[in-house]
Amino acid sequence: MLGMASLALSARRAAATATTGDIAPDIARILARGTLVVAAYKADMPPFFYTGAAGKAGGIDVELAADIARRLGVGLDYARIADSFDQLPQLVAQRRADVAISYLSRTLRRAALVRFTQPYARLRQTLLASRTKTAPLFKGGERVEALNAPEVRIGVEAGSSYADFAVERFPKAQVKVFPGNDAALAALLAGDLHGVMVDEAFSTVLNHPLPGMPRYNVPEDWALYVKTIMLPGARDPIAMAAHRDDSSWLAWLDTYVADRAEDGSLDRLLARHLSGAPQ
């Protein structure tokens, strides 16, 4: 397997000296254009991507995309054009982007449209639970299985993987779809929901916002009314998505993720942005 330095050197040499026939067409297309187009969701989703107070883009995915573009020797267009997470695979399938690197959960439904890399993050699924509405059901514990009941209402963000995860986890409950997590949280705090399903990255930033990151729109004392519960046995694999015909490009991205995992730089990147995550 190529090391990171060799991978970067190979890309630069390819861009500078190789003929079109020497490089896989799906990679040659990016090099010839001189820009890597990355599809992303339009709204801020710290810690994965956001616009900071100084107007500068930041986050895990922004740093990964910039590093990939640098190693290819091309510019970066981090295109925050998707109206939902479900639209990201569609943009890649329509060749409006070379890859989606945007806090994108790998799911079987989405894999029918695109090809996913190996996950670069595996997040725990989380329930933001109303303390008052769940207390009678939990009966002094955290019996999340008690929420799998017809009278229970669980909120999720429209077009997100959690619309699927909530139905899988709580098939008997009422799953309510909201335009965004902010709206779902507002309904939770208003007493209209028993819980909101998110992942640990979202709940971490909600509980422990890092300097320079935008804050989600919740009251300062929201934690008095909401309890964060990590759902046992439930993971959310976050991966990059490439066009289903771009096998060489997918292999390049897989090598990139594998090399960054092997040298420890991927873990350091995630830890820096998820430092508040419970262990």
Largest sheet: 5 strands, mixed
Question: Helix amount, in percent?
Answer: 25-40%
Report the β-strand fraction as a percent range: 15-25%
Shape: elongated
The tally of strands reads: 12
Average pLDDT figure? 89
Quickly give the structural class. alpha/beta
Distance between the termini: 31 Å
* Count of DSSP-assigned helices: 11
Q: What's the arrangement of strands in the largest beta sheet? A: 4-1-5-12-6
Model regions low in confidence, pLDDT < 50 over at least 5 residues: 1-18
Gyration radius (Cα, Å) is: 20 Å
Order of helices and strands: HHEEEHEHEHEEHEHEHEHEEHH
How would you sum up this structure, described in words?
The protein is built from eleven helices and twelve strands. Strand 2 and strand 3 form a beta hairpin. The radius of gyration is 20 Å and the shape is elongated. The chain is α/β, with parallel strands linked by helices and 279 residues long. The chain starts with a helix and ends in a 6-residue tail after the last helix. Strands 4-1-5-12-6 form a five-stranded mixed β-sheet, with helices on both faces. The protein has a five-stranded mixed β-sheet with strand order 9-8-10-7-11, sandwiched between helices. It has a two-stranded antiparallel ribbon with strand order 2-3.
